[in-house]
Amino acid sequence: MKKEIIPSLILTVVCILFFSGVYPVVMWGIAQAAPNKGEGFIIKDARGKYYYENIGQKFSDDKYFWSRPSAVGYNAAGSGGSNKGPDNPDYLVTVQAAIDSFMLHNPGINKSDIPSDMVTASGSGLDPHISVQGAEIQVARIAKVRGLDKSKVEALLKEHIDGPMYGMGPERINVLKLNLALDNLK
Prior knowledge:
By secondary structure, this protein is mainly α. The chain has two domains: 1-39; 49-184, no CATH class. Helices cover 44% and strands 8% of the residues.
């Protein structure tokens, strides 16, 4: 019995020291080497309000570019997807409702022109980006609601295109940055 208890106690003490001391200090050290010291990327708008640019925000007003839908209601306290498969009836109802709403607010577009990221949530539910196509399809609505020339909104959109992450994947647009720039547009 002594043969099992002593190694178990030693392993317990080693794990406690490692996971409550060494590991957190190492992770903190790595975060200090990261951009912004692991605090996230914070943006301050003209009114002095702070936002995290790397966490999806809800924009559903017609004067803004809409964000990607969120399965967690844009709650950064707990990210996650819906865990519903592509043929789940509840999921299909949710996607169809998003399509109907998008088409209602963006008249004159075809269902087939709506990019999937505008009607489906990301795996985390907090993706701050949309596709370039997802933004382009909203330009006419925003220009009309804000009384702006369509070419001015298109030019602003082009200024906010981010290249592929680490050289891989599609171009994308951070919705928060684009909408803050839209508010500052004269």
